[in-house]
Amino acid sequence: MYKYESTIREALENGKVVVEDRGIDTIAVYQGILIAQRNDGNPLQIAQEIFDFSKLYRRPPDTTFLFKGDTDFAIRRAEIRDKSEYTPEEIKLLKRVEKLYSLYSEKHKDRIIPLDISEHSTEEIYCILKGKIDKYLELNKER
Known about the structure:
mainly alpha
């Protein structure tokens, strides 16, 4: 909420487009898994409840891009970037997140756009993102 209140809300109120990494959808998915582990709950239901609750306090994203690909490759790449090997527990969590995020995105087809990075070049992904933003700007210019 601090990030939203300190920067995002004002930018949105001023008609700007905000591109946010690891936003409320990601928070809902991760927390859904962590809470479900402790309480024997349904992680998808918990993630949805977290997302719904967040809408009471912040504007939800108009669009979320879900970058998908080879999970093992992404983990190895992150380990190299972070110069740290993930523990088996962390790898298990990341694989659970990937599965839950896929289910979660099915429930939010109207605004979550999955992009398989193994099927698109960097340039193609950029064009998809830019096209979506340009379309949004054009629609909102008329308002």
